[in-house]
Amino acid sequence: MLDQRGAKEKGYITLKEAAKIANYSPDYIGQLIRAGKIKGEQVYANVAWVTTHEEVEAYLKDKGRKVTDKSDESSVLLQKVEYFSKYFLYFLITACLMMLLFLQYVLYVSIDAGLERSVFSSSKVEVQEIDDMVQMSSR
């Protein structure tokens, strides 16, 4: 964000000064900046606009031109990165939850299999002991 001193050092002029050069009103110069026909920057916490003498002269020579502001391109790129990172974060959280559910399933299956083996092995031992006792008593 520029302040008044920084804008003057960079060669920017106010909308009033640009309006005198172009013989337009300052509001119309601001409208041209917002429409992308003249390059400009906002100062004072994005309240006022400034432009350069060269931009005003270039517009007067070719009124149908459209300028591309690199800061607009970078802000679009920044918005795309923020959009991608937000959805990538959602994807990452979902993948972690799916992994946790899978690990929980594996854990439960292994615990169940272990319990099943121990129950069946102990019941086999008990059945064998009962069979042995029956055979002993029948002798």
Task: Describe the 3D structure.
A 3-stranded antiparallel sheet has the order 1-3-2. It has a domain at about 5-65: Multidrug-efflux Transporter Regulator, Chain: A, Domain 2 (Orthogonal Bundle), CATH 1.10.1660. It has helices at about 5-10, 15-20, 25-35, 55-60, 70-139, and strands at about 10-15, 40-45, 50. It contains 5 helices and 3 strands.
Could you give a short description of this structure?
The protein is mainly alpha-helical and 139 residues long. The protein has a domain at 4-67: Multidrug-efflux Transporter Regulator, Chain: A, Domain 2 (Orthogonal Bundle). It contains 5 helices and 3 strands.
Q: Report the β-strand fraction as a percent range.
A: 5-15%
What is the SS-derived class? mainly alpha
| Annotated CATH topology of the domain at 4-67 | Multidrug-efflux Transporter Regulator, Chain: A, Domain 2
Poorly predicted regions are: none
Radius of gyration: 39 Å
Question: Could you tell me the mean pLDDT?
Answer: 81
Number of E-state strands: 3
Number of helices: 5
- The top level CATH class name of the domain at 4-67: Mainly Alpha
Distance between the termini: 104 Å
Q: Spell out the helices and strands N to C.
A: HEHHEEHH
Percent range of helical residues: over 70%
Strand order within the widest sheet? 1-3-2
Strand count, sense and barrel status of the largest sheet are: 3 strands, antiparallel
Shape: rod-shaped
The CATH architecture term of the domain at 4-67 is Orthogonal Bundle
